Amino acid sequence: MRVQLSATLTILSLTLNTVSSVGLSVLEGSPVTLITTQHDKREDILNIKWFYNQTANVVYYVPTTPNEKVADLFKGRVEFNKTDFSLTLKNPQRSDSGLYTAVVETLNKGAEAATSYELSVLAPVVAPTLTVVSNWSSSDSCNVTLKCTGLNVSLISSCNGTFCSQEGGDRFLSIAFNHTIVSCNHSNPVSWRQTTMELEPLCPSYEADVAPPAGISPCLLKALLLSVGLIVMVTAVITVHISYKLQKTK
Question: In this protein, which residues make up the domain named Ig-like (predicted)?
């Protein structure tokens, strides 16, 4: 048996070069099923083996026998499907991350790696923290500096009431601004958490009922709105006056 296992591992190390491993990320504690891709006739299959990191035997199964053999290290932790030869990790932990390879031995082809998975078991991300570094406001301006912190990474954001810039962070930590809400987003490939903060209370003196378009100052916007209002009023008065004259003429 030891000679057979050694020979299988030698063949496995040679055939892995021709089988591309599939990257797979799962949430810690969530069951995951690794499916084989072999398409040989069942009667031609001599045995199936699942390996962990190319050396540790997980499951050994001979189709002509009723039960599979599960290695002591994996007993109670995996399930083997004797129909499609898939392997299920029932409660994967971060320590279970690694390379899982299915080796199928047939009458015609011998032992070949049928499929390979590079499994990453990840813990759910923790909710990020969003703290105020500084804030200042007046009737026509607002400036708030925030710090968004996730696991081992943080970023600084400067908000002016209509837009938030970002310095630092990475693809798993970002900040967003929507109306008056600032959100700090922390994620990994299998989970996502968010912390939000109202920006308006941090700028009590800032009058931002109508956010001016980029490049237009609040004072200019107020002047434009006042001008439009006056034009509408004058137009209404003229229209009423003309209508009155026309009716009087009739």
Answer: 28-120
